[in-house]
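PROTOCOL LOG
Step 1. Enter all chains and additional molecules of the complex.
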Amino acid sequence: MTAKLKTAVIGATGYSGVELVRVLGGHPRVATPVLLSRPEDSTTTKTESVTDLAEMFPALSGNGGYPLQPLSWPSLKQQGIELLFLATPHYASRTLVPQAIKQGLRVIDLSGAWRLKQAQHRAIYNFKDQDCATAEELTNKAIYGLPELNGGRIADATLVANPGCYATSVILALAPLLKAGIVDREHGIISDSKSGVSGAGKEPTSRTHFVSVADNFSAYAVFGHRHLGEILEQLSLNSAELIFTPHLLPIPRGILSTIYVNLNREMKPAEVESCFREFYGGKRWVRVFATPNLPQIQFSLHTNYCDLGFCLAEDGRRLVLVSCVDNLLKGAAGQAVQNMNLMYGWNEEEGLQ
Amino acid sequence: MTAKLKTAVIGATGYSGVELVRVLGGHPRVATPVLLSRPEDSTTTKTESVTDLAEMFPALSGNGGYPLQPLSWPSLKQQGIELLFLATPHYASRTLVPQAIKQGLRVIDLSGAWRLKQAQHRAIYNFKDQDCATAEELTNKAIYGLPELNGGRIADATLVANPGCYATSVILALAPLLKAGIVDREHGIISDSKSGVSGAGKEPTSRTHFVSVADNFSAYAVFGHRHLGEILEQLSLNSAELIFTPHLLPIPRGILSTIYVNLNREMKPAEVESCFREFYGGKRWVRVFATPNLPQIQFSLHTNYCDLGFCLAEDGRRLVLVSCVDNLLKGAAGQAVQNMNLMYGWNEEEGLQ
Amino acid sequence: MTAKLKTAVIGATGYSGVELVRVLGGHPRVATPVLLSRPEDSTTTKTESVTDLAEMFPALSGNGGYPLQPLSWPSLKQQGIELLFLATPHYASRTLVPQAIKQGLRVIDLSGAWRLKQAQHRAIYNFKDQDCATAEELTNKAIYGLPELNGGRIADATLVANPGCYATSVILALAPLLKAGIVDREHGIISDSKSGVSGAGKEPTSRTHFVSVADNFSAYAVFGHRHLGEILEQLSLNSAELIFTPHLLPIPRGILSTIYVNLNREMKPAEVESCFREFYGGKRWVRVFATPNLPQIQFSLHTNYCDLGFCLAEDGRRLVLVSCVDNLLKGAAGQAVQNMNLMYGWNEEEGLQ
Amino acid sequence: MTAKLKTAVIGATGYSGVELVRVLGGHPRVATPVLLSRPEDSTTTKTESVTDLAEMFPALSGNGGYPLQPLSWPSLKQQGIELLFLATPHYASRTLVPQAIKQGLRVIDLSGAWRLKQAQHRAIYNFKDQDCATAEELTNKAIYGLPELNGGRIADATLVANPGCYATSVILALAPLLKAGIVDREHGIISDSKSGVSGAGKEPTSRTHFVSVADNFSAYAVFGHRHLGEILEQLSLNSAELIFTPHLLPIPRGILSTIYVNLNREMKPAEVESCFREFYGGKRWVRVFATPNLPQIQFSLHTNYCDLGFCLAEDGRRLVLVSCVDNLLKGAAGQAVQNMNLMYGWNEEEGLQ
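Step 2. Run joint prediction.
Step 3. Record the structure below.
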């Protein structure tokens, strides 16, 4: 057997980060990842001061430890690291990725820092690039890491921008229909999406307090969520063609998007199902449900699946899609590992079963 | 002070029923309600065999008891009962209501038995009326008990068909806009609605098992939920003009509907807000949120409020409404009491604060 | 009818505070309470900057507003306030109460500031009194506000120290047995207590983050919880005679204590039940369950009840008690109002039904 | 590599059963297990009529199917099955195990049917054996499958009685202390144990209805739970020496036991910790927490760990232990696979990481 790939992770203390460490830990072709503390700056919280991940996540204890070392590019080189995962906030990724690329590392970034090609969609992030030319260059170079759509380009990528969790659920549901040209785009598409609380991050706020979330449900960021831009870009839609409404579910993890589409011609359920089955034929991590069966959040929890199902109205025109992902796996860490598998020519399911 | 109104409840052992008993128990103008067991038939479950409601709901103990007596029309007469509440399944209501009306009682029925005027919408219930002429007559006589819309007719009603919980949340959100004639009805309206588990009733099923619901979220009855008919009827919409998608939330109670509407002309948020505020001016149990504030399920829990809020897209056309009710209060027992208040000329808020 | 009592609340923005505002708002003998902002100091959080409670708790909107005014003793006098509730942290109460008493106000303090007579138990709070003589005097003057035990002394109290939530559940379960002299105290008593998250307060921390609490359960502060002292003092136990272990439940509110006691003589279940029934005969807010029925947290939620039940081993010696309260009502705001009722000679159930 | 072990599972449609199928599916030394329907009898529910497990658990779909075949002993022989898992109710296991053993199969039974040697403890199960002699013989032959205690005897076992979930958490916490002879047994031990709802099984009942469990917490079966017997037997305690109180937590899975022990001599925390560390030295699936750190339910969820921690009172005598397991893994399916590993001489962690 060939030597195992050496990887490092910055941002392992967040929910996506720790999930990534778990998945990498069980990957047969990857050495135990090196965990790096983010360099201290005004945005670094005290959670970065832990020296072993198991102090913060006792669930990880008993496996020999998960020490965090301070980030040092020369040291990474010395240790033979080839691939760097960033599970950092977008502003941190915006600073760290150019440095990493310069060191010759390949990078999979889980933040929103490099997902967007169009300046209009980037505005919401308010990036403050120090070296605008490099930022521009990397923006062009970055591949949007949705394997089912961009598999070929991911294989050769230096920088993979791992998709947002909501975006994954919406794009995978709509791509087959849009590609088939059967969507009445002028009529407008609606994605009513619901996410568990880990999607809101680990920082304690009044919004993530147990008492605020339990026995509750709410919409937020209507017309203004950051993931809207990447959905539009990947599906080549304009902003008039999609409404995206996120909601907060009283569960720790999981996303379900209910998506409303009008078809531009009358179809039968079997035709719509074929459209999905053909598009995703041979794709390991998308499950198409036989209509009218619908996926539920529980079905894909703790897996890397995106589950898709639909109901078609009797008029053969109005289509209700349901798309589920685990926001920390197919919506983050699992998809990052799937991208790594493609980048190194491995089977897409390695380490994800 | 005048004598208190004497009421009776059939079906107090269900979630809506016991909530009704609680509300009536605190109503200043109503005597302690007489609780009646449903006559035994093939559909009666063993839960009907309790002799005191507190056996089944120990939360009610310590207040002198809630004895159940077997239903007997002569006995009701003797006890001076004037108003009968039914919190029974629709098929039971379909049998019991004609009997009650014949006895000269006024009736508020919480089931779906008498809500629908149009046969096409009734089909889903598959009623098996023994006396079709009476059923027809009562169907015509029944008033749909949504006080904010039908207040005047409720005052004089003999039979009030208390609205469905989902229907209440959807109709109250859409009525002002439709009445103002600003909805592009041809474009179609979508209500993506989410309910807590008490809406599914008290019978234990694999669907209501804790392990099936917790950490989960799912859509169900897409294009085929029973409440669709009453929404269409009350709003004078045809079935092509509305998609209604119910979902099951992992919470005990509460409904939130996210409703998507296209306006037929460009409007400003303030105009839309005015439309709601004018329509609901002076209405005690509807709260209109100042845009872009949105209601959440927690806000109306354990109250009789319907909370309404909205966001309008920058194009001034695409409108996202959010409507919340407690399915057991404004969506059932609270609304029933509000209807009673109207029927007896009392203030709409009596007993509901 | 006589004029309504004028009250004020400091600390209305916390969970106990807002519950208190709700209860006072429905009390027939009390005017709408004046809500006061805490004077700013280093410990005051930004939540104190709200000008109306409904901004923070939209559930309260639609009832005419809950404006907060800055604390000013002269202004309270002018407004005719007689009774002040403090739902502030203990260190704030330690400063504010002496000032309030000096102004001639009666005070019900919901914090731990004035509950403890014995210095050894106070140590854990680490009070930093500026005027030690006054603090000493008030400590002696304060009445521990558990109406079922100290009703008579509460009636005349100037300063009522409202009990802790855990303490309420434990003391009410044990008091009848200890008074009857049937507990083998040397053997030791154990209270294994479990509380919902609102007991941990409103401040967002990693411990109260939804993802930390949901699908979880944990013990904390074993041998070192602040409520231990007041339990020992009220029951005249020494620290070797009681183990108190708090746990965090994944629910918003409610406490259940499972308490293990050895009796010093063999008894029959009926004798033990009598012991409870006699002790609590005529007490409105304690419900004794007929053995072997046990209370559950749901039964007392949103009520002011303390529910008590027990199972006795066949040996007639080993007793397992179960005691439930809603930590925000009988464990805080409800008990405060019950104390107020005693202080003003009203029926103990006024405003609490 | 040698041929993979061929196994079969009866009762795969229950919570423990499906978890077992999941674990076996990822085990490197085991072929895909054959799933068998229970022979129909009066106690068989309709859930047995599924022909593929994925119909019932859509989470399993997309992996080539999990067909159920009717139980036929000759067919099992033909297929080369060596090891049979039973995740059936105890009365079904009581009938099926003798048949299986007669066929020469080795058996791991997850029910309570064969765990108890002493007739007094078996009484609660009310077994109705058709062939008492065989039942007696098998009872004697059965090995209680707790690997950390009975590892050696499990290796050679024909029939392994897999421990109860509660029992696993209690026995593993107490065994080291009892073996060291440092427990004051006369004083009595208390285990206040709390379990998630999957422990109550998959059958929908009023007790497992979401609305009954959510926002609730309750004690049940005080002094009378079935697992008490096996705890007593394994720890050689008599019934006067242990109180075991189960409680129902509003979470899907996980058990935490808080256990109260008096030591018979004054000890230091480090000594107690050593006692645990020595006992469990080299044991892969027990994690001992450094005092005063305590395990929480989340830490061992979805793992095969039993997590142990403790706090010792200042008097050096009163000890509070906390023990956590995932009731479906270390408390059921995971432990069954750990037992299989021992029975076939494999590493104890195979297939469980």
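Step 4. Note key features.
The longest helix of chain A spans residues 165-179.
Chain A has two domains: 7-162+332-343, 165-325.
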